[in-house]
Amino acid sequence: MDKTSLTDTRARHLKYLRISVTDRCNLRCSYCMPRDLIPKLTHADILTYEEILRVVRIGIRLGITKVRVTGGEPLIRKGIFDFLKALGALEGLQDVSLTTNGVTLEKHLDQIQAAGIRRLNISLDTLDRARFKRITGRDSFDQVWRGLQRAYAMDFKPLKINVVALPGLNEDELEKMAALTFEYPFHVRFIEHMPIGKNNVATTGRLLTPEIKRRIETLGVLVPVQPGLTDGPAERFQIEGARGEVGFISALSRHFCENCNRLRLTAGGQLRPCLLSDRQVDLKTDLRNQVSDDQVAERIMAAVRIKQARHGLTDEIPKKVCGQMSSIGG
Ligand code: SAM
Ligand code: SF4
Predict the structure, then answer these.
(1) In whole angstroms, what is the distance from residue 109 CA to residue 271 CA?
(2) 160, 177, 268, 279: which one has the fewest Cβ atoms less than 10 Å from its Cβ?
(3) For 60-89, how does the pLDDT look when each residue is reduced to its tens digit (9 = 90+)?
(4) How far apart are CA 260 and CA 278, in angstroms?
(5) How many folded domains does the chain comprise?
(6) 93-138: per-residue pLDDT in tens?
């Protein structure tokens, strides 16, 4: 067992762990969960912070170097800032980042900074207040925008803005979102809507990267940006003359499975080797049965062994993943 233990038979080295710390959320984005969804997990069902930290420590021994904390909405779980601090203090992690909907970001930025987090992803699908309410179920655009501005003023970087491209909901705003990169050094990333869990967005008539890119190109030439060593699946570009970047995450139209380096720990303690498959390994039962670290490591490696070559979803096959995005973490 060593730092290469999470390399699968296709030579993919899974060194990036995404952790959903809660399946609860203060928004109800129509593309993520239905308005009436009551999160299923009770307090006892979700992993404790100690359990998550143990998984990460064991993961580091096996080669994990990068962690992202997500949810549900991570900033609404009690004790999150102490957890982030503990995570940041673990030796062997090169990168700890956070994905948030930004609703409570403004008032928590000092604690996030004090915990050592520099990299933030903020989800924002529109720049229009009324539309924000329509998409998320809550009139919180102003709070999110203030949080984003304060994070910028506090020099968090890179500041990534996640935009899910939604036909009929925000498709007429994609250029406007991309144009933010002329004014700010933000990384605006357009994400294809994925058929995951119960949500209120039709799985037909998707807006896919080739069309999104075509629209963004009306703003200027897209100059490719060299990917960094720990980069994810986004194809990165700079619009000529812009300060920031645009990125495209094309899970459906351009499979990036051959380069996937991710594992996902769900809020309920399941380890999933692929976002777009319901295959998973139960870590929670082991963690609660006082098994040894080596046995937990063996279970983590079992998740690596069941990672398939590529996911089976395309823009044409109307398959669906049953797990809920808010529990898996995105
Ligand atoms: N609540 C936080 C947030 O919204 O940033 C973190 C969790 S959320 C599940 C993580 C990311 O997944 C967000 O950027 C969200 O837009 C994205 N997302 C949610 N449902 C999606 C779907 N069905 N397809 C594509 N992206 C989705
Ligand atoms: Fe909540 Fe994030 Fe899902 Fe929106 S995308 S409902 S903010 S978990």
Answers:
(1) 29
(2) 279
(3) 999 999 999 999 999 999 999 999 999 999
(4) 16
(5) 1
(6) 999 999 999 999 999 999 999 999 999 999 999 999 999 999 999 9
Q: Is the dihedral of CA 84, 88, 93, 97 positive or negative?
A: positive
**Sign of the alpha-carbon dihedral angle for 85, 87, 93, 98:** negative
Domain presence at residue 89: yes
Q: How confident is the model at residue 330 (pLDDT cuts 50, 70, 90)?
A: confident
Q: Is 121 in the pocket of ligand 2 (CB under 6 A)?
A: no
Strands (E), the chain: 16-20, 66-70, 95-100, 119-123, 159-165, 187-192, 222-224, 235-239, 245-249, 262-265, 270-272, 281-282
Residue located nearest, by CA, to atom 3 of ligand 2:
32
| Among the bound ligands, the one closest to the CA of 71 | 1
Measure 85 CA to ligand 2 centroid, in angstroms: 23
Give a yes or no: residue 2 inside a domain. no
Q: For the domain that residue 73 is a member of, what is the CATH number?
A: 3.20.20.70
Range of the domain at 33: 16-328
Q: Could you tell me if the CB of 72 is within 6 A of ligand 2?
A: yes
Tokens of 102: 């930004």
Count of residues making up the chain: 330
- Other CB atoms within a 10 A radius of the CB of residue 323 amount to 19
